[in-house]
Amino acid sequence: MSENVQLNGLCDRFRGFYPVVIDVETAGFNAKTDALLEDRCHYLENG
């Protein structure tokens, strides 16, 4: 029962949507010369 309360509370904070965290690892700050090494996307469903 408490798990449902947590899920609803998190969803209510973001206008009904669950938040997404995007993490990008690069080889530098210049998009023209530095490579994109890794990207990740995490969905926060359980708080």
Polypeptide structure, described:
With 47 residues, this protein is an alpha+beta fold. The protein has one domain (2-43). It is built from one helix and two strands, in the order αββ. The protein has one helix at 2-13; strands at residues 20-26, 36-43. Strands 1-2 form a two-stranded antiparallel ribbon.
Secondary-structure blueprint:
Blueprint: H1 2-13, E1 20-26, E2 36-43
Antiparallel strand pairs: 1-2
EC number: 3.1.13.-
GO molecular function: hydrolase activity
Keywords: Hydrolase
Summary keywords:
47 residues; alpha+beta; 1 helix; 2 strands
In short:
By secondary structure, this protein is of the alpha+beta class.
Shape: elongated
Largest sheet: 2 strands, antiparallel
Whole-Å distance between the termini?
Answer: 15 Å
Mean pLDDT rating: 78
InterPro entries: RNaseH-like_sf
GO molecular function, one term: hydrolase activity
Keywords: Hydrolase
Protein name: Ribonuclease T
